[in-house]
Amino acid sequence: MIDRGLVLWFPGPNSFTGEDTVEFHVHGGTAIVSAMYDSLGSFPDTRLAEPGEFTKRAFYAGKMDLTEVEGLADLIHAETEAQRKQALRQANGQLSCFYNSMRTRLVNAIASIEAYIDFSEDQDVDDGVLDGAVQKIEAVIDELTVHLNDNRRGERLRNGVRAAIVGAPNVGKSSLINLLSQRNVSIVTSIAGTTRDIVESHYDIAGYPVILADTAGLRADTDDVVECEGIARARTYVECADLLLLLVDASRIEPIDRLDAFIEEYIRTLGIEKHLMSRTLIVLNKSDLLDNVTLERLKPNSTFSCLSCESEAGLVELMERVKVRLEQLCGNPSVESPTISQERHRFHLKQCLTHLERFRDYFKETSGSDRDLAIVTHHLRNAVRCIGKITGTVETEEILDVIFSTFCIGK
């Protein structure tokens, strides 16, 4: 007697792997699971599954393609609601349908071109067949170009949005990250230059994954070697960040009528490049130090947020603005077309687009008897092969090993 549990029988080919499968549902105590392993392991030719082996068997049985496999892996590791939605759509085959539709149209175009090559002289295959095939290829090029120009929303959602809190020393950067974390992530003191290195924390903001970094205060007048290194790292991080929260000490703005000029000079003093401002949210911190009249004059302005890390006033409004910006950066996986979530997909899609453009350019630059369609069609075959590498129609053991190794044992 090991435990009281449930045994489920899944006959193939309708099981997850397509094989006859038995599941033992027992209590999850360490001793029970260990006893089950020992008991099952006593049977001949029985072993523990390798990481991802069940999913690999499902793939080889034709139960899912590689995009669905990767979607399932992302679903298992999803930490936020938006990640779950994106992964679920991919695991359910929506991305697979998109790529397979594209591949089918290219295969049909190749078939039409080859029919034109073989039978145009002695059969009823006219130039209209060739023109129709070229139109299909140009439509795929346009669709693929739009798909690739997605500002990497899917990858950003899968990996997390990199956000950085920046500003001069003692404007409340560490206080803000501590407020969002509800714990002491960074050291807060009245001494300028306390934060010397990048301090990262992971957050779920409105269902979007965010990697928020507290950075060293930006200033030029310091001789501290360690602080100088911290400032250099902060500037490097800022260049790569998807979102910047620029903190300004509201108590230093006098008079309030020259707010815009003050912020412009503040940005120049910090050395933040103009091209970074499009990804920046300006936050006037320490708003609790302002009088009510000044605070009322600031609130109607939509270009910045007022915040007090001390009293938490303005935090809800700031988070609402961050949410809007996250939606712009990651998209809405519930309503938008499936996006590219893996660098592997983007690499093969770019190669696919290159092959298709080579075919199109050759077709435009030549005409009639000057065209060697038999040779140039290999660009289309290469394009089809690139899509096949994404879905697994054309697979290599190296790709498979990398993908399935990301699964937990028993998945």
Automatic annotation (TrEMBL):
PANTHER family tied to this protein: TRNA MODIFICATION GTPASE GTPBP3, TRNA MODIFICATION GTPASE GTPBP3, MITOCHONDRIAL
GO molecular function: GTP binding; GTPase activity
Record bears the keyword GTP-binding: yes
Entry protein name: TrmE-type G domain-containing protein
Family: Belongs to the TRAFAC class TrmE-Era-EngA-EngB-Septin-like GTPase superfamily. TrmE GTPase family.
Residue intervals of the MnmE helical domain: 66-408
Species in which this protein is naturally found: Anopheles maculatus
G domain residues: 163-286
Domain of life: Eukaryota
GO biological process entries: tRNA methylation; tRNA wobble uridine modification
GO cellular component, one term: mitochondrion
Record InterPro entries: G_TrmE, GTP-bd, GTP-bd_TrmE_N, GTPase_MnmE, MnmE_dom2, MnmE_helical, P-loop_NTPase, Small_GTP-bd
CDD domains linked to this entry: trmE, TrmE_N
Segments forming domain GTP-binding protein TrmE N-terminal: 2-63
Swiss-Prot/TrEMBL keywords: GTP-binding, Nucleotide-binding, tRNA processing
